[in-house]
TrEMBL record:
This is GntR family transcriptional regulator. Keywords: DNA-binding, Transcription, Transcription regulation. Gene3D superfamilies: Chorismate lyase-like, Winged helix-like DNA-binding domain superfamily/Winged helix DNA-binding domain. It comes from Longispora fulva. The keyword Transcription regulation applies.
Length: 262
């Protein structure tokens, strides 16, 4: 029987410590993507805990998308691509295209820049720089979104030469094995700066949606930080509520949707 160096004592937070130990083993490569973990009864014995405690630890990793459990087969480390679930974690652009809207991306600039002090959790290179990507999204031919993305190192350097006008940022990251796992997004009303207003065809100071989105990889580290300014008279946020839950998506406002053929 394999003995785990991270075995923990019996405490109220045993399952959290076990989850942390298993996470470290996944990050270090002791357990590789696609590899099966030892059987649950073996893991519980090596950690000196009950099966219930072990399963609580595995649930934490499962919720983070780091492992997958297959009925009758066992528990496996999730491959990076399996965490890239575009249907569950979609960009604003994907939402709109699914609704039949024409989305054109114009890349305004790509390059390694000094990371702002406001992004302490974004891993920069030894020179304090990370990849910055500036884009303008046109919806049905009208400028609607100005987006600035920062990509953590070393991944930004690996995709710096990718044509991000035709390849989605998440897809480019997935191609180098950095799948997207979770994201948090905050949306507020903000006044458009002169530069943003000019790009969106607005008067300076006009109210726009400001979206700040932090995307995490399968390791739990920050992968991408996004700031987007969205034309608030052109776009709206729509929720659909049902007994099973709530879905939220962006959609063009009725006043700016393309006319339908009669």
């Amino acid at each position: 029987m394999t003995t785990h160096s991270g075995a923990v004592g019996r405490k109220s937070s045993q399952y959290e410590l076990i989850a942390s130990d298993l996470l470290e083993k996944i990050r270090s490569g002791s357990y590789r993507p696609g590899q099966a973990l030892p059987p649950q009864n073996e893991l519980s014995l090596s950690y000196g805990v009950s099966l219930m405690t072990l399963r609580r630890a595995l649930l934490i990793l499962s919720d983070q998308g780091l492992i997958v459990q297959q009925q009758g087969k066992g528990t496996f480390v999730a491959p990076p691509q399996s965490a890239y679930r575009l249907s569950a974690l979609r960009s604003l652009t994907d939402d709109l295209r699914e609704q039949g809207q024409q989305v054109i991306t114009q890349v305004l600039g790509v390059g390694r820049r000094k990371t702002p002090a406001a992004l302490p959790d974004l891993e920069a290179g030894p020179d304090g720089r990370a990849l910055q990507v500036k884009r303008l999204r046109l919806i049905n031919g009208k400028p609607a979104i100005h987006q600035v993305s920062w990509v953590a190192e070393p991944y930004g350097s690996q995709i710096e030469n990718v044509d991000l006008q035709s390849v989605a940022l998440y897809a480019a990251l997935a191609d180098i094995g950095q799948g997207v796992n979770t994201a948090t997004e905050t949306i507020r009303i903000a006044a458009a700066t002169a530069a943003v207003a000019k790009l969106l065809g607005l008067a300076a100071g006009t109210s726009v949606f400001r979206s700040e989105r932090v995307t995490y990889g399968v390791s739990g580290d920050v992968l991408v930080w996004d700031e987007a300014f969205i034309h608030s008279r052109f776009m709206e946020i729509r929720t659909e509520r049902a007994a099973a839950g709530v879905s939220v998506r962006w959609t063009p406002s009725a006043a700016h949707s393309p006319a339908r053929a009669h």
